[in-house]
């Protein structure tokens, strides 16, 4: 039989009201009382009724994850990281994919917020980088946390920053240390700031080692396997061929590897290939791909925890400090380089 709030109160030896206050993270409950209630919740595997909580508190115990990203592994890891934090705080997670290029984007977001009554949102690129989206949500007084590519800087909303530029610099420097002077760069979608940040890191490493960046070796593309295949074919059709490729993510790198081997090239003897993100593509290829390990689940979990802190400040009507968190992906060297 499913446990009720009465069961939790009886096991913890407190009132139903006290259980409700602990579950709702209300202040001024003594720590030992909180511990007893949470232990009772754990033992009974009690699951609060989210609808009842929302009605009783005149607010929604729902947070939204809004995204437009073609990378399925990234989205799965983001969902899991946010969901882990939501379960700890007894919140529901609303997952809302959306077309960031749609003319009705803002209207769709407004309608989603109206129907869900979500307490807050977590936004990932490119939505988190779109000023019209941020302005609309700010004017609507929506609590949000944005995941952004770049080093931390002053923002008007709480953010989790991912230092793609430094990681891209390290990947490029690793290729240079392996003796490569001619290194191609296969881009992701241009509307994602991560593409610009990774390209900037690549160019900075070349410049610091007195290697000129050949514009013909920078290929536009998308964050997809197919983009890596097409760009590798185009690159190999030219007379002058780089000895290494830095692909903007692991899917692009896997496509590059596939096309290179179809053309009879050995990796890494004939051409070295590196990716970015350390998603399953990097470990499922042969040889396995050098990459930058981006802890997406940790990033998502921190974004959710940051949102909950923001919501708590808002509920207490406290002045909201704009907190920012930073992550730096770490170089992982494998057989492809």
From TrEMBL:
Q: What is this protein called?
A: LacI family transcriptional regulator
SMART domains from the entry? HTH_LACI
Where is the HTH lacI-type domain positioned along the sequence?
3-57
List, alphabetically, the InterPro entries matched: HTH_LacI, LacI/GalR-like_sensor, Lambda_DNA-bd_dom_sf, Peripla_BP_I
Keywords assigned = DNA-binding, Transcription, Transcription regulation
Q: Which residues form a coiled coil?
A: none
Query: Looking at the keywords, is DNA-binding present?
Result: yes
Molecular function via GO? DNA-binding transcription factor activity; transcription cis-regulatory region binding
- Source superkingdom: Bacteria
